[in-house]
Amino acid sequence: MSAAGCGAPQQGVELSVGANEVVLSGRVSAEGAPVGGAYVRLLDSSGEFTAEVVSSEQGEFRFYAAPGDWTVRALHRSGNGEAAVTAGGPGVHAVEVAVA
């Protein structure tokens, strides 16, 4: 299923965040180069799957989430990787995921 078919917001577009929104936004890369077409998964603090999007051609992804501790995992034919992020409150929380 494509990102458009699953209701995920278009990746790589300008982002405006409401006063109470928590956004996890970042990029998937391999050796510093962006990785497009990666399946990017959001896992909650207990490791449970919460959501998935496909990274844009520039490797960008975004999730709207609740405050808390999250793991972002990227799966791609060139490799896999993950990163932890803590979203303490509203705003954009940056996360970079390197795949190898």
Automatic annotation (TrEMBL):
One Pfam family from the record: DUF1416
Top-level taxon of the source organism: Bacteria
GO BP annotations, alphabetical order: carbohydrate metabolic process
Name of the molecule in the record: DUF1416 domain-containing protein
Native species: Actinosynnema mirum (strain ATCC 29888 / DSM 43827 / JCM 3225 / NBRC 14064 / NCIMB 13271 / NRRL B-12336 / IMRU 3971 / 101)
